[in-house]
Amino acid sequence: MAVDIPIEADWENAPGLLDGAGSLSLTVDQCDLAYWFSAVAQGTLRGRPLGYAPEVTTPAHMREPGPLREALSLELAYRALDEEAATRVLADYVATAPGIPELEFFSTQLLDEARHHMIFRNHILDLEVVSADRLMPWVREVGGEYEKTVLTPIKEFAQTVTREEGDFIGGVVAFAVIIEGVLAASTELSERKWGVLDPVAGEIARGAAIDEIRHLAVGSSIVREHLISHPEDRAHVLHILGRGRELWGEINDREFVMHREELFQEGMLQHRDLLTDFELFPGCRMLDTTPQSRWDLAARWNDELAESRLRYMGIPEAIDLLRARAPRIL
């Protein structure tokens, strides 16, 4: 029997992450285990159990030592560490879920993040950067400073809110807006950047983006419905957002972003023949972009997505607060 795949989980027809996460309405009751098994396992992942179709291959030029391979391997290492941290943090969301709908949804999100971790780290093997027995030690070595400087404070913030303070809705705000919300631009940018240079990396990013649409939409819906039912918690939600903004103000992630983007720039120009007419977005050739312009683009995308979701949640007054946050495209 054919499975009816909802458009937001359909590989061919799902919107891009920024459009989907910015406008889609999905509730925690809709996205239960039954939804995940049909829409995701039999929809998004059909024919792509490892994140990409078997006929899609890694080009030979991506296996050659040089700035392009180094840029992608660093991105994959950082993303693998991101997803590992997210998986561990989400265990607290499952443990503190106030009802069965929340328990089921965050169980599926935990599985999504664990799957992303597997897919990102495995593509490092496709690039022939390191042997399988050295993979995670290599990831932790190259991402050690990033993990210490960026990931650990973020992980501790989410765990403090959920585990120590027992604040489930505060934890949803922290994850959907402060943590996962600022990753949306990097996922969208990755899909566009790598689609031509490395179709496997492009498909991996596409699959992750489809999942993130669901995560952001449902997280936003949980906050929206909570504030409709408990308007007295508005100040508390704004307080959590303020704490998150202060956290980002203390984190210096620019050095990690720009180092990787400078490597990408060098590698991109070495393979400019593949990108002659390719547009990063309509009217802008990727060959005409720079590390700084891509940083600025991601910052603008972050702001636009945050604005649309905060308006949907019913807290437009938080827009200016979050716009003061340093941009991030890791």
Task: Describe the secondary-structure layout.
Layout: H1 17-23, H2 33-44, H3 67-96, H4 100-126, H5 135-142, H6 144-164, H7 168-179, H8 184-197, H9 199-229, H10 234-250, H11 254-270, E1 279-281, E2 284-285, H12 291-313, H13 319-323
Antiparallel strand pairs: 1-2
Helix pairs in contact: 1-9, 1-12, 3-4, 3-6, 3-11, 4-9, 5-6, 6-7, 7-9, 7-10, 8-9, 8-12, 9-12, 11-12
Oligomer: single chain
Strand tally is 2
Name of the CATH superfamily: Ribonucleotide Reductase, subunit A
Structural class: mainly alpha
SSE series: HHHHHHHHHHHEEHH
The CATH level-2 architecture is identified as Orthogonal Bundle
- Kindly provide the radius of gyration, computed on alpha-carbon positions and rounded to a whole number of angstroms: 19 Å
- Helical fraction equals 55-70%
In the CATH scheme, the class would be Mainly Alpha
Overall shape: it is globular
Strand content: under 5%
Number of helices: 13
The CATH topology comes to Ribonucleotide Reductase, subunit A
What does this structure look like?
This protein has 330 residues and is mainly alpha-helical. It has a single domain (8-323), classed as Ribonucleotide Reductase, subunit A. It has helices at 17-23, 33-44, 67-96, 100-126, 135-142, 144-164, 168-179, 184-197, 199-229, 234-250, 254-270, 291-313, 319-323, and strands at 279-281, 284-285. Strands 1-2 form a two-stranded antiparallel ribbon. The longest helix has 31 residues, at 199-229.
